[in-house]
Design a protein that fits this description.
Layout: E1 3-8, H1 15-28, H2 30-33, E2 36-41, H3 47-51, H4 59-68, H5 78-89, E3 91-92, E4 97-100, H6 111-125, E5 130-135, H7 140-143, E6 150-158, H8 161-174, E7 181-189, E8 201-206, H9 210-218, H10 230-242
Parallel strand pairs: 1-5, 1-6, 2-4, 2-5, 6-7, 7-8
Antiparallel strand pairs: 3-4
Helix pairs in contact: 1-10, 4-5, 5-6
């Protein structure tokens, strides 16, 4: 069964870049860590671009197709058709697989499609050692219970009053989710200091890194970055010392 790590935070907090650095660290340590599935559950869907890969298709497209599809004579029932569609939507990238959720659900009911997605995700979870989920702050994907329980939730926050408030809101939202989140903590980004928030553990800090800033401005992807940059090494340290998931 995979170890599932979800990353959440407000827009601009750097969560997608951090999610990508976590994925790349696990890829670099694949002999020790194992196979990786990345799930982009943010409607902005920037994870593929950050990792330098293309998206084959999205779950939101499959939902729409499942909603509109009429019975045919192929002998393939809706569940098998939907599962086949998900398999086709998984992008096989360099060192990891990527599944993109796409746009949030509209006013129509997608209960049946979400149930099929959950069943498939339960199967898919058994095929990987790590599942990394890049979520938006509202965590709609998790609130719809379309994935497995979460082992670790990283709340990425910048060192500002808004960042602290957002971290508190996400932490409170977690307690209302219809899934189990075993461990929740904050990663303070672009700072070497951290704030103590009552009831929320700090998993670590990631310093401001000129190389990361320049890479974003110049369209350089995370796999192209030097893993010895301060930010990358801070991510590695969190995975090694705080979570004991891998040994760097």
């Amino acid at each position: 069964m995979a170890t599932t790590i979800a990353i959440s935070g407000k827009g601009g907090s750097g969560k997608t870049t951090i999610a990508a650095m976590i994925i790349q660290t696990l890829i670099n340590q694949s002999a020790k860590s194992g196979s990786v599935l990345a799930i982009d559950a943010d409607p902005n869907a920037c994870l593929a671009m950050t990792m330098g890969t293309d998206v084959e298709g999205t779950i939101s497209q499959l939902r729409e197709q499942a909603k509109q599809k009429k019975p045919d004579n192929t002998g393939m029932d809706k569940a098998r058709t939907f599962e086949y569609g998900i398999q086709q939507a998984i992008t096989e990238a360099k060192g990891f697989d990527l599944l993109t959720m796409g746009q949030p659900e509209g006013p129509s009911c997608y209960c049946a499609a979400n149930n099929l997605l959950r069943q498939f995700m339960d199967k898919l979870n058994k095929s990987y050692d790590f599942v990394i989920i890049d979520n938006e702050a509202g965590m709609e994907h998790l609130s719809r219970r379309t994935t497995n329980n979460i082992d670790w939730l990283f709340i990425v926050a910048d060192h500002t009053p808004i960042g602290e408030m957002t971290a508190k809101r996400i932490s409170a939202l977690v307690k209302t989710l219809p899934i189990i989140v075993k461990k929740t903590g904050v990663i303070w980004n672009r700072t070497e200091n951290h704030k103590e928030i009552d009831g929320i553990e700090t998993f670590g800090t990631i310093p401001y890194d000129e190389a990361i800033f320049n890479a974003s401005a110049q369209g350089v992807t995370v796999p192209q970055l030097d893993t010895n940059t301060p930010a990358f090494k801070a991510v590695q340290k969190i995975l090694e010392q705080k979570l004991n998931l891998i040994k760097i």
